[in-house]
Amino acid sequence: MSDVRQHADDIHEQFSDHIDVSVEDVEERLTTLVDEYKVPIDEARRSVTNHYLEEAGLEREDISGGDSEAANIEDVDEPEEWIDLTAKVIELWDPRSDSVAQVGLLGDPTGTIKFTKWAKSELPALEEGGVYELRNVVTDEYQGRYSVKLNSTTVIEELDEDLEVGNDTSEIEGALVDMQSGSGLIKRCPEDDCTRVLQNGRCNEHGEVEGEFDLRIKAVVDDGIDAHEVIFDKDATEELTGLSLEEAKEMAMDALDTTIVADEISEDIVGTYYRIEGPTFGRYVLADDVEELGGPADPEELLIKARSM
Ligand SMILES: [Zn+2]
What we know:
By secondary structure, the chain is of the alpha+beta class. It has helices at 3-15, 23-36, 41-56, 234-241, 245-255, 259-269, 299-307; strands spanning 69-70, 82-93, 100-108, 111-118, 131-142, 145-150, 155-159, 169-179, 184-188, 202-203, 207-208, 212-222, 227-232, 273-281, 284-286, 289-293. Helices cover 27% and strands 35% of the residues. A hairpin with a 4-residue loop joins strand 12 and strand 13 (227-232). It starts with a helix and ends with a helix. One of its GO terms (molecular function) is DNA binding. This is Replication factor A.
């Protein structure tokens, strides 16, 4: 089967339930783009898919990406992948948008992940504590955190069994070799449930807002094998540095400059060895429990090593 024909087959399968279109029609559109307009096949596929989405009045989330594969939660590390999960509903949260029917946390033996179920998907309600086989869910990523979306192509089957939910806590022992920008005294958007970090007084979503001060550290910790990105929230930062949010605000006010806080913190922690424990969210470890360890510390040398990885 030709490459174009295979893509045509895939696209046809995605839309066959929604609109009356033949494989030949799809193939012809692809061929025209590829042969006459010299469009790369991936781009042609996107373009033809968009055409049929529009024709069917559907959104990208409404069609499946082809064959979904059984996956474990810990393996989710790419957006836009179509997977099958067997998972337990650990928690349900209040949806904050009318377009969302249910939102919450799923768990399997390898970890936990947020899920969102669209209102228009008209899927049955998931119960807290229930174990389900969820076929054809699509992965998503936001700021390094992964989630799965249940959509109109998702098939939900309730299983009559319990499922042990794994602890996805990470433990890292190593040197804190770098502190990243966006650390120290920051301002967050005060809008409900937003909490985005402001850039020059602006929230990406809500524009110019009166920010609320917060303390945070984004750091790189090198355990000798890997470099891990670790986030310390306000409590963890206060514990790590002995500097409270109030003290940090005073320090910044005295200096008329918030960056002094990050500078002070950096001086204090870069090059120090820590044992850090906390849950993993995407590529980040959220520091829950931190212990300072003794150990050799030559930040320059460690930094060179970390950057060479
Ligand atoms: Zn905002």
